[in-house]
Amino acid sequence: MGETVAIGEFEVEVRRARVRRVTLRIAPDGSVRVTAPNACPIQDIEAFVRDKATWAESRREGVLRARREELAMWSDGGCVEYLGEALTLSVERDAATHAAQFAERSGERIIVHLADFTTSEEVTGQTQALVEAWLEERMEELLPGLFAKIERRMQLRCSGWRIRRMKSRWGSCNTKTRMICLNAQLVEYPIECLESVIAHELCHLIEPTHNERFHQLLDTYYPANREARRILNLRPPRR
Q1: For 66-90, how does the pLDDT look when each residue is reduced to its tens digit (9 = 90+)?
Q2: pTM confidence score
Q3: Predicted local distance difference test score (pLDDT) of residue 171
Q4: Which phi and psi angles does 132 have, rounded to 5°?
Q5: Which Pfam families does the record associate with it (predicted)?
Q6: Most buried residue among 96, 147, 192, 200 by CB atoms closer than 10 A?
Q7: Cβ-proximal residues to 2 (8 Å cutoff; 6+ apart), any chain
Q8: What are the boundaries of each domain within the chain?
């Protein structure tokens, strides 16, 4: 059995490794893990954990709260946003053995069709996967027109674009290949936010850095970018 130390009412798992210092991490499920050098005395690890206890407890509660909110989001009656519009999630089960599983929009709802044999443990994950696939399809439909509009305005073109799930960035631009990547979650925000990120990345084809010239270009080609950025900053990408 591995080593453990205590923080308040919960235990911290200790993992030994070929590392130079002690580190503490809060996992997505709320568990707390410490990685320590192989030769580090357990007393030193306990002292490190005590020193980090207040931060760890606060951080752990934040992680658990975010997890609860995420589970509620992908449950029946949850709220999913599409281009800034709040849609109610409705999860339905189909009794047919080989029924297709998919998501579709109906008015102000997104209906997720799941097979009847889907277990309760699988529902949240499958619902999230199906809704995200539906959102990504809508984004795929929108992007050609949005890129064409903004590229005409800027009188330049990228070589292509991709949709990716990013943990901390809204977009990226490879100035050598002229390829642009966009965060899949952008389709959840008002369309001005999506357009703003497209304009932002296209500006990097003119000015690679975020210097004064870059911001002047962005303000010129997409004046609404500052308000769009404010909205995006209020709700960063989900990790």
Answers
A1: 777 777 778 889 999 999 999 999 9
A2: 0.75
A3: 97
A4: -65, -35
A5: YgjP-like
A6: 200
A7: 13, 14, 15
A8: 3-66, 79-136, 137-234
